[in-house]
Amino acid sequence: MAGKPRSESLLGKHLLSTALTVLKSRGLPLRSANMLAPVRGVRVSSILPRLHPRLLPLRPYSTSDRTSDRVPTNDPSPPKPVQNVSNSNAVPISPQGLRDSDRPLQETPEDGERQRVMQAPNRRDVWSRSQQPRERAMSGPRFEQTIMEYQPQPEAAINLIHKQPVRWTKTRTVSCDGGGGPLGHPRIFINVDKPQVCWCTYCGLPFAHEHHRKLLQSFPSTSYPLEPLGDPAEVPESQRVSDEAFGQR
């Protein structure tokens, strides 16, 4: 117990000398002459408040603007959506530099507004929490006189994958690598012993056991087609971009 005040006094002197060195290097004025006066037997807790505010340790933290991610409240009278497409788009103009030069550039405001608010041609809403609505991005004077028909509009893969027919198997476990290659994914194994459509958690390809075919066919509807329907988005299992070992399917 006798050595405890001495150790605290030495620690206090060390802190005070360090603070004095930092203050001299930065050219900061001392708040008081007694601030750095070493007092023997004084506890460190009583010395630390005398230090300069810039020398006190601060807790590191980071902030970010969350105004755009706030959940909207229930508004009994929400504002009506304002049309962003200009009515002048309905006036035909000469399509200079386009392939179909015989067709004038013309688009009704209703069709342009419908394509502007669609997140994709085959999906209206967003499919990820971090995704922003397309109508919020394509707004303002820049897009008032834009023909939406000629803008890039890729279809949403989250809807295209549900057009792939179920791949039936006679084993309890199947493997999926997304076709391999740079566009594939790590090989995973999927259990198909349950009477349901089991999809890959990476790419979404559906699999099911042959033993459950009749049960699945008795359902009024399934998330994936049980048989090929001839949709252009269907990708046969044998279709591959290349035949080498690291090819793409």
UniProtKB/TrEMBL annotation:
Residues 57-139, 226-249 are annotated as: Disordered. Residues 99-137 have a biased composition (Basic and acidic residues). This is Zinc finger CHCC-type domain-containing protein. One of its GO terms (biological process) is mitochondrial electron transport, NADH to ubiquinone. Residues 172-207 form the Zinc finger CHCC-type domain. InterPro entries: Znf_CHCC. GO terms for cellular component: mitochondrion. It comes from Imshaugia aleurites.
